[in-house]
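Subject: Protein record for review, amino acid sequence with backbone structure tokens
Category: Structural biology, sequence-to-fold work with a learned token vocabulary.
Format: Residues in single-letter code; tokens as whole numbers, each standing for a residue.
Body of memo: The sequence and its backbone structure tokens, given next.
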Amino acid sequence: MTRCLPTRFRHPAGAGALSAMGAQPLPGMPAPLRAATAVVLLAAAALAGGCAADNPDRYYTLASPAEPSAVAPVAGPPLFIEVAPVAVPERLAKPQMLVRRKPQSAEVELLEQSRWTSSFEKELRDALSAGISERLGAIDASKAARQAGDLPSWRITMQLTQFDAVQDDRIDAAMNWSLRRTDAPRAVTCRWTGSERVGPGIDGLAAGAQRVVAQVSAQVARQIAAAQAGNPALPVC
């Protein structure tokens, strides 16, 4: 079975492949040997190109498929939320998936051909916003034009402190967030931690990540719904 190099190590195939690979037959090399060397190098370049064709990039989303909401939409006037950009550890702030192949291993692998649809922190923010909005029947005011004098909104600031993805095993995650209604003086800080078992392969890992995001979205939505029904100035974590 052919083993393909990661995308970042592949070399261009086709015309000019020898110069692109930084390899030129030596000037004093006999003609037959030069020809054989060129054939080998071109074959290697073609093989690398074939690997790229056989293993195209695959893209995943953190947004869960639409499903019945576990939180009843808030009745009454329109509800607005404002989800700020999510802070994540620097190592995660890229579109490539970062995984461990074995539990307890210190080695992590950056998967060049398994990517989120955008940089992880942007994908996470959009998925959380969609999940919270869907559960509450709310509008994300950070993406919608609003007029002065509109109803107050819930400002949600979130920080991901842990996202440890172990292929064929689990995802351990932890997230902090603060909630404050724009007409209230106080904010409340909350924390969620969890471990989610995942199915086999990268598809199973991506589905597990969706479930993690869904759990956090549901928790935030429940807090806002409870606060709206009681004391909007003091949501309960």
Summary: The chain has four helices and eight strands. The chain has a mean pLDDT of 80. The first strand starts at residue 58 and ends at 60.
